[in-house]
Write a structure and sequence with these properties.
Structural class: alpha+beta
Strand content: 25-35%
Helix content: 40-55%
Order of helices and strands: HHHHEEEEH
Distance between the termini: 39 Å
Strand order of the largest sheet: 1-2-3-4
Mean pLDDT: 91
Number of helices: 5
Shape: globular
Number of strands: 4
Radius of gyration: 15 Å
Length: about 140
């Protein structure tokens, strides 16, 4: 398991790297996400997520995982939780993107490097470089 500071650093890099993608998803009506999740319309949810992802990243780099959920509580705003994957031969990352009226946040669940360096800082830099390399630069 990663030390907390490494995990937080990687979550910050991931959050910054997908910020424009998350902002685009926040433009959608949350009721649509909720309906697709509640009615188990995973293909419709995947279409929305993948279309937004392919606008910001090379196709197939960022995809919807196998599950998503709605987080509800009596004393908090509802959140949509999307399980997402970063897919590259040299890097696999699984994380959750939480969308709410307060904005977006990420939670890194798993990350693997094909050519893992013994130094976690090198691997963390590789994550940042990979995210940057896979982004489309919109001008």
């Amino acid at each position: 398991m990663l030390p907390t500071d490494q995990k937080l650093a990687r979550e910050a890099i991931l959050s910054e790297g997908i910020a424009s993608f998350a902002e685009e998803l926040l433009l959608a009506e949350p009721v649509h996400f909720a309906a697709f999740i509640a009615l188990d319309l995973h293909a419709s949810l995947a279409e929305i997520v993948n279309e937004a992802a392919n606008f910001h990243f090379t196709p197939g780099f960022l995809t919807l995982g196998n599950s998503s959920s709605i987080v509800l509580g009596w004393n908090k705003l509802p959140e949509i939780c999307l399980d997402l994957c970063l897919n590259r031969e040299e890097l696999q990352a699984y994380f959750r993107l939480f969308l709410s009226a307060d904005g977006a946040r990420v939670q890194l669940d798993y990350i693997a490097f094909a050519k893992s360096d013994g130094d976690p800082d090198v691997n963390t830099r590789f994550l940042a470089e990979t995210l940057q390399a896979q982004q489309f630069m919109l001008t």
